[in-house]
């Protein structure tokens, strides 16, 4: 089975488990560049990283959850800094 066989709404695609290296490449396709080491750090520090499952001691990222997490990280298109950030500027 290849990625071409899997449609975006296909449950099989969403249930695929990706390694950290594969998850990093998948996120890059979504516009979020995170190295596998950064994914590991986000998980180990309990930061707001993507959700993963562990099989024995190895982490795997479900493709559907990874896609949802990536979408949640993106904001709407902006034309300038938000008002709160403008107030902090000097000069």
Outline the structure in words:
The protein has 91 residues and is mainly alpha-helical. 46% of the residues lie in helices and 11% in strands. It contains five helices and three strands; from the N terminus they run H-E-H-H-E-E-H-H. The protein has helices at residues 11-15, 20-29, 36-45, 63-73, 83-88, and strands spanning 17-18, 53-55, 58-62. It has a three-stranded antiparallel beta sheet with strand order 1-3-2. Strand 2 and strand 3 form a beta hairpin. The protein is elongated and about 50 Å long. Residues 1-7 have low confidence and may be disordered.
Reconstruct the topology from this structure.
Blueprint: H1 11-15, E1 17-18, H2 20-29, H3 36-45, E2 53-55, E3 58-62, H4 63-73, H5 83-88
Antiparallel strand pairs: 1-3, 2-3
Helix pairs in contact: 2-3
Helix tally equals 5
**Strand order, biggest sheet?**
1-3-2
Shape: elongated
> Can you give the mean pLDDT?
83
Write down how many β-strands occur, each being a DSSP E stretch of 2 or more residues.
Answer: 3
- Indicate the multimeric state: single chain
Q: Uncertain segments of ≥5 residues (pLDDT<50)?
A: 1-7
H-E order:
HEHHEEHH
N-to-C terminal Cα separation, in Å? 58 Å
Radius of gyration based on Cα positions: 16 Å
Question: What percent of residues are in strands?
Answer: 5-15%
Helix content: 40-55%
Structural class: mainly alpha
């Amino acid at each position: 089975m290849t990625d071409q066989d899997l449609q975006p709404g296909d449950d099989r695609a969403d249930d695929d488990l990706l390694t950290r290296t594969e998850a990093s490449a998948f996120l890059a396709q979504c516009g979020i560049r995170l190295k596998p080491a950064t994914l590991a750090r986000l998980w180990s520090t309990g930061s707001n990283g993507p959700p993963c499952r562990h099989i024995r001691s190895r982490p795997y990222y479900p493709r559907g959850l990874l896609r949802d997490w990536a979408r949640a990280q993106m904001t709407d298109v902006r034309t300038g800094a938000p008002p709160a950030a403008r107030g902090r500027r000097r000069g």
